[in-house]
């Protein structure tokens, strides 16, 4: 799939934007704070209805405007699909083929994107929450069922945590209601854990091949899912330590506390790996998503590279660009074309961005 056309209205620093993109490589060129990342974010938000940069959706709306609107035309193997997302202070409305969707979860997955930004290099060495978010955002695009389960799980988790606090401060006494919430949480949580294990096993297979190539055959990359659950099921665990959870006022076990460990030649790369190994691992995992999404959905995703080439050495740049060339539509932000021209096999379509305005400067299609 690829994004054929994009239209923005009052989004961030864009009053109005109407642009056609190449199905290959699109370079967004400009100085910092001119709107390159805003444009990349708009594509991400069009796909996922949320940002990778902020939780405050009012930030999307241009100063003194009432709402922001993102419209896209997605080309799939089955035909063209118009998408529309309107963000206002009252919430979000999403349309597929001009029909409003009752739930955002029904909308997500129409446009699949993979974002690779400098902060993604912290996927390996960052906090467990970084890896959980990575899993949920990426797998949610590939599986409506996973997206539904994670949404329901978070809703019940909030309810259960609130009720644990009420029990802690003697504002409630009904343990039966807590058991009902525990059973619901266990049902959704168990499905999430199983789906994560299945997806991670497939992602590991793709990532191993890439990591093997980048390390010139010297390293084997493996994944390990880290859970607090041992022998007990999630349902048993949620019922086993209720007194401690009431004392803490929060749910202490479940997929919201799980993690993924990356091992290189059997050693935890987060703890024992060099910076080069950590970056190779992060690159391998992100690139593996491309093939996994194709395997799961039948379509290649759109790749968003936010100033990431400047963070990679020549060898890793070469592997990155080799992996995407003639395969996926790519949007790449940069402050300079030096380095892009020499590493690209085929010249990209180049857009100059300044003060929230975009101008096409090169087209070699």
TrEMBL record:
Keywords, alphabetical: ATP-binding, Cytoplasm, DNA damage, DNA repair, DNA replication, DNA-binding, Nucleotide-binding, SOS response
MF-aspect GO terms: ATP binding; single-stranded DNA binding
Subcellular compartments: Cytoplasm
Residues binding ATP, per UniProt: 30-37
InterPro entries named in the record: DNA-binding_RecF (IPR001238), DNA-binding_RecF_CS (IPR018078), P-loop_NTPase (IPR027417), RecF/RecN/SMC_N (IPR003395), RecF_2 (IPR042174)
SUPFAM superfamilies in UniProt: P-loop containing nucleoside triphosphate hydrolases
Assigned protein family: Belongs to the RecF family.
PANTHER family per the UniProt record, alphabetical: DNA REPLICATION AND REPAIR PROTEIN RECF
Function of the molecule: The RecF protein is involved in DNA metabolism; it is required for DNA replication and normal SOS inducibility. RecF binds preferentially to single-stranded, linear DNA. It also seems to bind ATP.
Name of the protein this chain belongs to: DNA replication and repair protein RecF
Organismal lineage: Bacteria, Bacillati, Bacillota, Bacilli, Lactobacillales
